[in-house]
């Protein structure tokens, strides 16, 4: 990852480069902010810049021996720590990590769960990880420069691992840099927080996301604008929506949503069961994206009733349906519908039987649409 490949965040890029050139490099830095805004890509581009043999005024060279190794995420002085399962350490999953990161540096925690095949297990960073890190960092730098460790989601550390990391940050080996990347810094051990230089990363501008979607995914400007608005500065969410459109998932999700609302209103239980069985065949990740889509459509329907067209972002077919469906979404039931969708999302994330989850949700919609 190069700085120029990161969407937006020019202020943070410039700050990191200027501090490096001035020799003011904090040995422990915390990149924090909302998910999907580019914290990990920034940390990776910064690590490359620190390791680059011919770093320029604005970016790494991209061609030196160090850069070539970073391209493959295989630089001997670049270490990764991230949540895993089965009481393993990061090195046990380094192949999956490289595949995930190289495919899309803007991946989400849910994406990582799929690579781990975590099922019901909750990935964490175990104490063994800190022991292995201490061993690795005790060795001399292979290239004679910095040793950089990127710790993704340090809030997932258990208590023992956190305490060992604290000691390492307090007494770091020579020319060792720790880059912590966090979605929820408030969950990190306070004593670790107090020893890091915090960089707050902001959501990406609507305009920049729209431009990225048009350039990289060949979207028409109106589609790119709609997705950029709905993403709320989250690049990961915008990319997923663009891929939905490209793969035809948006049309499928729309059809599934419309079908469910009609069947629930008409109380066609047998057809609703068939609808649930159909959804159970599309895979967990697409099931979650469908539920997120349904949640958006409920939101759009509620806003439509407020007669504030500037706040609605829908395709033509969505607007045609919502114009007829919106009277059934009101202040009395909108919270209940949203809650049931959230519950279904959580259940799918925990690998609960999807046929049961979707059939249960569809039955609850019968009552909610009548309120």
Structural description of this entry:
The chain has 371 residues and is an alpha/beta fold. It has 2 domains: 198 residues, Rossmann fold (3-Layer(aba) Sandwich); 121 residues. Helix content is 55%, strand content 7%. It contains 17 helices and 5 strands. It has a 5-stranded parallel sheet with strand order 2-3-4-1-5, sandwiched between helices.
Topology:
Elements: H1 10-21, E1 28-32, H2 39-51, H3 65-71, E2 78-81, H4 94-103, H5 109-116, H6 127-137, E3 147-152, H7 159-170, E4 176-182, H8 190-193, E5 197-200, H9 206-217, H10 221-231, H11 235-247, H12 249-266, H13 269-279, H14 284-304, H15 316-325, H16 334-349, H17 354-368
Parallel strand pairs: 1-4, 1-5, 2-3, 3-4
Helix pairs in contact: 1-2, 6-7, 9-10, 10-11, 12-13, 12-14, 12-17, 13-17, 14-15, 14-16, 16-17
Summed up:
This protein is an alpha/beta fold and 371 residues long.
Fraction of residues in helix: 40-55%
CATH topology of the largest domain: Rossmann fold
Give the amount of beta strand, in percent: 5-15%
How are helices and strands ordered from N to C? HEHHEHHHEHEHEHHHHHHHHH
């Amino acid at each position: 990852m190069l700085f120029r490949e990161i969407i937006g965040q020019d202020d943070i890029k410039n700050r990191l480069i200027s501090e490096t050139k001035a020799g003011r490099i904090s040995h422990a830095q915390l990149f924090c902010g909302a998910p999907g805004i580019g914290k990990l890509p920034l940390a990776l581009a910064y690590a490359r810049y620190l390791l680059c043999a011919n770093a320029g005024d604005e970016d790494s060279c991209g061609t030196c021996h160090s850069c070539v190794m970073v391209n493959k995420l295989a630089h001997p002085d670049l270490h990764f720590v991230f949540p895993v399962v089965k009481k393993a350490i990061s090195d046990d999953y380094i192949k999956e990590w490289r595949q995930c990161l190289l495919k899309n540096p803007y991946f989400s925690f849910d994406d990582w769960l799929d690579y781990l095949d975590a099922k019901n297990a909750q990935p964490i960073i175990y104490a063994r990880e800190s022991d292995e890190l201490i061993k690795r960092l005790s060795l001399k730098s292979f290239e004679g420069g910095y040793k950089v460790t990127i710790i993704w989601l340090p809030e997932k550390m258990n208590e023992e691992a956190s305490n060992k990391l604290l000691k390492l940050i307090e007494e770091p080996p020579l020319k060792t840099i720790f880059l912590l990347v966090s979605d929820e810094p408030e969950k990190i051990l306070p004593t670790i927080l107090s020893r890091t230089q915090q960089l707050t990363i902001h959501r990406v501008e609507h305009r920049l996301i729209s431009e990225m979607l048009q350039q990289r995914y060949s979207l028409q400007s109106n589609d790119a604008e709609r997705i950029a608005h709905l993403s709320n500065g989250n690049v990961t969410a915008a990319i997923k929506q663009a891929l939905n459109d490209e793969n035809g998932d948006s049309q499928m999700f729309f059809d599934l949503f419309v079908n469910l609302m009609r069947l629930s209103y008409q109380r066609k239980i047998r057809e609703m069961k068939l609808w649930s069985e159909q959804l159970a065949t599309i895979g967990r990740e697409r099931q979650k994206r469908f539920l997120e889509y349904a949640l958006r459509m409920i939101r759009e329907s509620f806003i439509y009733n407020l007669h504030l067209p500037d706040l609605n972002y829908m395709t033509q077919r969505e607007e045609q349906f919502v114009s007829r469906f919106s009277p059934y979404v009101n202040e009395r039931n909108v919270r209940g519908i949203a809650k049931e969708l959230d519950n279904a999302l959580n259940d799918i994330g925990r690998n609960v039987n999807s046929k049961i989850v979707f059939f249960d949700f569809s039955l609850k919609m019968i009552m909610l649409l009548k309120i």
